[in-house]
């Protein structure tokens, strides 16, 4: 009886750990998706004319992006050792082998945002801002993001 309980407890604990790890992965993925919402669903769409230029929306998107980017290092502190179920992208194990290098990809994004903040006034300046920020996102993705499907 004792043994059965130990086995049951061990199973429960490991199921709990797997669930906690999935939550970590989801949390990391949600941060990236939130950044994508600001940069792609708002800023890029405006540069393409898919949605009309709107100064307030631009400023809000940049502020949200800035807040999200500041959370990357901490959000990726723990290696969930698994991908989000059905995700298109996952984190490379390299993130946690070279966490300092991974973290070093964040300040350039912050600088790109700071450089354009308060200076975007029209679609042309928004386009330039989009490219300069997105290039820095790509710098990290090239090494640390894996395409899963
Ligand atoms: C320091 C590294 C780093 C930076 C900087 C970074 N990302 Fe990511 N990004 C990742 C990693 C690792 C993944 C894969 C794991 C995940 O999705 O959580 C990822 C995944 C993504 C995904 C795919 C999410 C999905 O599963 O569909 C999007 C979209 C994304 N990032 C957008 C951005 C944008 C926009 C920026 C710039 C504002 C950015 N990222 C900056 C590391 C980074």
In short:
This protein has about 150 residues and is mostly helical. The chain has one domain (about 1-145): Cytochrome c/b562 (Four Helix Bundle (Hemerythrin (Met), subunit A), Up-down Bundle).
Task: Provide tags for this entry.
149 residues, Four Helix Bundle (Hemerythrin (Met), subunit A), 7 helices, 73% helix, binds heme C, iron, electron transfer activity
* Continuous helix count: 7
What's the N-to-C terminus distance?
46 Å
Quick one: biggest sheet?
A: 2 strands, antiparallel
Helix and strand element order: HHHEHHHHE
SSE inventory with pairings:
Elements: H1 2-48, H2 55-69, H3 72-75, E1 89-91, H4 94-97, H5 99-104, H6 106-116, H7 123-144, E2 145-147
Antiparallel strand pairs: 1-2
Helix pairs in contact: 1-2, 1-7, 2-6, 6-7
Bound molecules: heme C.
Residues 28-29, 32-33, 35-36, 39, 65, 69, 72, 87-91, 95, 102, 105-106, 109, 133, 137, 140-141, 144-145 line the site of heme C.
Protein name: Cytochrome c
GO molecular function, one term: heme binding
Signal peptide: 1-20
3D architecture notes:
This protein is mainly alpha-helical and 149 residues long. It has a single domain, classed as Cytochrome c/b562 (Four Helix Bundle (Hemerythrin (Met), subunit A), Up-down Bundle), CATH 1.20.120.10. It is 73% helix and 4% strand. It contains seven helices and two strands. The protein has helices spanning 2-48, 55-69, 72-75, 94-97, 99-104, 106-116, 123-144, and strands at residues 89-91, 145-147. Helix 1 runs antiparallel to helix 7, helix 2 runs antiparallel to helix 6 and helix 6 runs antiparallel to helix 7. The termini are far apart. The model has no long low-confidence stretch (mean pLDDT 95). The protein binds heme C. The site of heme C has 26 residues, from helix 1, helix 2, strand 1, helix 6 and helix 7.
């Amino acid at each position: 009886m004792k043994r059965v309980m130990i086995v049951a407890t061990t199973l429960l604990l490991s199921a709990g750990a797997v669930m906690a790890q999935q939550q970590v992965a989801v949390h990391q993925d949600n941060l990236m998706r939130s950044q994508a919402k600001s940069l792609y669903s708002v800023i890029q769409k405006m540069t393409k004319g898919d949605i009309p230029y709107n100064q307030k929306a631009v400023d809000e998107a940049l502020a949200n992006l800035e807040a999200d980017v500041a959370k990357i290092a901490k959000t990726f502190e723990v290696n969930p050792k698994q991908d989000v179920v059905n995700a298109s992208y996952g984190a490379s194990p390299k993130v946690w082998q070279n966490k300092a290098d991974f973290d070093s990809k964040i300040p350039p994004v912050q600088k790109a945002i700071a450089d354009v903040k308060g200076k975007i006034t029209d679609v042309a300046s928004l386009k330039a801002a989009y490219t300069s920020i997105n290039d820095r996102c790509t710098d990290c993705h090239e090494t640390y993001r894996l395409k899963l499907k």
